[in-house]
Amino acid sequence: MTTRDVPLGTVQIGICSGHVNYPLYIRSVPTQGELKFHYTVHTSLDVVEEKISGVGKALGDQRELYLGLLYPTEDYKVYGYVTNSKVKFVIVVDSSNTSLRDNEIRSMFRKLHNSFTDVMCNPFYNPGDPIQSKAFDSIVSAMMVQAC
Amino acid sequence: MSPAQWDLPPELCCRPMAFVALTGLDVVYNAIHRAIWDAFCANRRADRVPISFKVLPGDHEYPKCRTKRTSYEWYIPKGILKTGWMNKHLNLVPALVVLFYELDWDDPQWKEKQSECATKVEIVRTSLQGRNTKVAVVLIQKKTPLPPGEDLVASERASALCGACDLSGKSLFVLPHTDHLVGYIIRLENAFYEHAQTYYYNEIRRVKSHKEFLNKTTHQLLFVRHQFKMGFFSELKQDTQNALKYYRTAYSLIHELRAHETNMLEIKTMAGFINYKICRLCFQHNTPLDAIAQFRKHIDLCKKKIGSAELAFEHTAWMSKQFQSFGDLFDEAIKLGLTAIQTQNPGFYYQQAAYYAQERKQQAGQLCGQEPGMGYPAPDPLETPSGALDFYGQRPWRQGHQSIDPPDSEKEKQGILALQVKERDVLHSELIIALLSNAVAQFKKYKCPRMKSHLMVQMGEEYYHAKDYTKALKLLDYVMCDYRTERWWSLLTSILCTALKCSYLMGQVKDYITYSMELVGRASVLPEEQKSRIEKNLIKVLMNEVPEPEPDCDPVSVKAAQMLWSDRISLAGSNEITIEVQDYVPFVQCKAKFLSPSFHIDEPVQLHVYVRADCPHPVRFSKLCVSLSNQEYNQYCLLEDASKGKDILEPSSQENMCLVPGKTRKYCFKFVAKTEDVGKKIEITSVGFMLGRETGRHVYLNWRGGWGDAASSHETLQASRSFKRRTRFPEQHVDWDTVSIQSSTMIIARVPKISVQLTHEPPTLTKEMYCMTVTIQSEEDTVAKDIKLTAGLKPGQDANLTQSTQITLSGSEVCDDSHPALLPDIPLGDLQPGQKIVKPLYIRCVSTGSRILLFHVAYSVSATVEGKDITCKCHKDETVTVETVVPFEVAMKFVSSKFEHLERVYVDIPFLLMMDILSASPWPIELVNSEVQLASSMTAIDQPQSQVEGVTLQTSECASECFLLKCPPVQNGTSTVASGQYIISWKRKSTFSETSVVRTIIILPHVMVENIPLYVHAELPSFGRVRESLSVRYHLENRTGLVQDVEISVEPSDAFMFSGLKQVRMRILPGAEQEMLYNFYPLMAGYQVLPQLNINLMRFPNISSQLLRRFLPSRIFVKPQGRNGDTSIEAA
């Protein structure tokens, strides 16, 4: 499972494992201050977890994967997305980045999810291992370049 | 400037209330006045009107009112808001002054008092000159007033007093000093409140009226000031809706001000004040979203207004304060009932405040630290004549200056320098930590554990910067395990690095070693050269040397730390440090396993310990020991460095006790289990691994259960899922992931080398002595000693089976209930190799059904394992399921001499007892004898001889015999009597073994016996021949004590002609017998029905002739008439 986090401008993508919430993939642009983004992704899991547990009770399986804006901070916007197998995607974007609206973020997540699904379909990938896929990397890179 | 410089003034943060001054009250010496004052101010509940009261002397000087400006034309304002203004209207200028005066309507000295009162009113008026403050008079009276209108004197004198004091009637009150004081006071203060509201209303209008005189170029500051004042007066008036409106206008006006470096601080300060007011009112109006929106707008607008770059820390300090005060407001609103949520709670604002505080600290470090020798400028540019500022947010060295450029650049420099020097002394870390801890408390409340951990890390780091290493370490240590559990290695590494620095600077050996071990290991994301550095330091510490300082540490602290470490060296005795591995991810991994889940006692228990290091350099260890649940074996599972005392940490890759990074080492242990541990489990309780010298400082890593640290369980899971083909490693190398865990083993008995065979012929027959032969043959190489056989019914079956099964060793006697179902421990002596014992056993099963029989052979044998002699106990079990069936079934019946079935038998009339013995046994049965033992109620007519003696019955064959019996007379005509019993002696016909005779007793059924009054029997030849006369004699016996009349008739028959009495009536005497003779002349051949004899007993009409006829033959065989000389027919 995966937490994914994309700060844009500074963009970060993190993917975290489902029940344990450890990172499967984290990438940020630019790379300085990376640690801080790791913390941002990690702390955003609080909100993701809360949202999942809330939704689970109310709507059962019929839930929206996209969780929307998790919480606003002074400098970043943090968006979340959870697959049915509870893999979490987090995108962190610069607050000043106005080009990315909800729709753009949503489609970014969808792209990420598709790409992640491809990774999972790889018979040589052991679910739960950190993602080391060139195809996935390049899709994420492209997305980040576009977003910045 | 004090650190409180950025705090909001208290007069801004309080809730403004109308200010009413009370005069003429002597609260110190006058008890009545004291009571009145207490009623006003003590225990004011929320439902009382919001007024702040103050007792002032009658001649109190109120602040002078400046002369009203008639024109603003030449007026240039010097600032936005005077620092004293809010306080003035809250606490100094009353909305209403109330004069208390003791005067009753019927006071004898009315005139004098009236004028004294008027004088006092005048004094008050004078000191309020120029203000619109109202004056009211309260007469304290001793008498309860009459209802209005009734007391004519009162109303007359009231209007007179009003006239004298120049008061309107509405401003004169009467306070009767009676029991209902509080009630009167409440009515009074409501009236005061109305007056105060009118006053503030007028003040608002007055301020508003200035607007028309203002122009937009020079009076911009005044627009803001007036809006703020109107807002503040509205608040005093408790008109919060309008107050909010005025403040909002003020807020938008303030951002229209021309901002430049010199007035930036003033603008921000005032913007902050107004923002605070707006947010506060929004929360008060229960529109928290408006408050948040306003605050966001405020921050967005002000974020970039940094002002002077040399004083950038001022901006961040101000920003931090903005967030902090908003957090406070938010928190306060929550305490009053507002609900916050996880993503919108005060914690975020405190966190942001902390962030700005950190920024401030950083800027302060950059801007204020360059010239440490730089002294504070003299004269103090921050000194003002009054000791305070005139306007909020202005510079003390150029108050009131509103133009773009500073008036005196030298002064400006000095001022900035003074501020920088002051900033240097601020304890930033304290501020940051306080804010962070506020945030932590909030996030804890709103279920954000990770956010909380993150903030605690920041707190820890801040404590580190503040050189409070103990607290830093405590916090970091607390959160570390959360990150470890969640496997965020990057974050854990960073925390560990800080923790390592702390422990280094404090000279904490244990912590230093623990953190180093983790930082060197696989959970750390540090680059290789860092790991290498840390490992070298770790080795130094283990060798009791001073480690190299951690990078980026404060040089002064490093010096102190080096001293500490040197002290540690001199203290070095044997200090042992134990690390429980399951809480960490150290650089050494261990897996211990038994080679098999069970070991026989006669083979050595084998145990492998796999050890692997993830550090960059090879490492040597001094001891590896395994603790087992039975500690006696521990001594066999110990690996110690033989070369004690050498510098064992010197890596040398050839040696056994050196771990090469990334290579798995295997250590094998074996030991011989103790015989008393047979059937017990041996568990690995822990594996210990020692680094360092046993004589000196050493670390003892302890794996509970023999494997696993904080990260292993997940790794094991991933490895088990992994598709990766395990590459074949050369013999010595082991793939770590493939090593499975077997942390316990069973010690089981030695495999017996004997054969146990059973010979028998199932099924068993009920009650027979069933012979089973047990053959025990030794296949041991040595003597099998103390062979013991336990045989019989396997325990744990149906309890009834225990009752109905008996076993014995001797087949000669038949078992009874005293024999047990299981014969335990039959001693059979010793067996030489290859020898065998044959032991017959006899089992008697009383009931049918299947049984499981157990044959358990136990013995002991001595064996040598690993050069050690042990006596092994072995045992072998054989079980067999045996069915028990009945050998035969016996059917009995009573029949008449004509073989007719009898429901009942008649006294003295002979009958037959018939037995059918049907074999049900699969094996042939020999009937040895049979015997009828009759009860007293029956007698045999002749000597009963067994007719089946010696007969052998095969399966489902049947043997029959019969006995002729009769019953002696019975008492009551009819009764049921016992018949006795039938005993069959039999045995199984077996070639396999000698079998004994079994007596089976069968109880004969009861039978009904009846007396009969007349007995009839006939005497006739066994056959007749056609046309040859045959004579038949009928005997009639009277069996009663009475004379009987009997009517006899013979019915004609087609088959016979006969002669004799056809119909006769006669009398038979008691006990006498009458004989009747008939000659029958058969006419036809074959079985022919005899002419029927009807007997009619006059005395016993219920005895039918039918019944009597049963004693008589009914037919006879008639042979055809033979021709002379034809013998063939004769023969047939």
From TrEMBL, chain A:
It is found in: Cytoplasm, Perinuclear region. It comes from the Eukaryota. GO terms for cellular component: perinuclear region of cytoplasm. InterPro entries: Longin-like_dom_sf, Sedlin, TRAPPC2L. Keywords: ER-Golgi transport, Transport. Belongs to the TRAPP small subunits family. Sedlin subfamily. The keyword Lyase does not apply. This is Trafficking protein particle complex subunit 2-like protein.
UniProtKB/TrEMBL annotation, chain B:
Keywords: ER-Golgi transport, Golgi apparatus, Transport. Residues 1037-1095 form the Trafficking protein particle complex subunit 11 C-terminal domain. The keyword Transport applies. One of its GO terms (biological process) is vesicle-mediated transport. Transmembrane segments: none annotated. PANTHER family: FOIE GRAS (PTHR14374), TRAFFICKING PROTEIN PARTICLE COMPLEX SUBUNIT 11 (PTHR14374:SF0). Involved in endoplasmic reticulum to Golgi apparatus trafficking at a very early stage. This is Trafficking protein particle complex subunit 11.
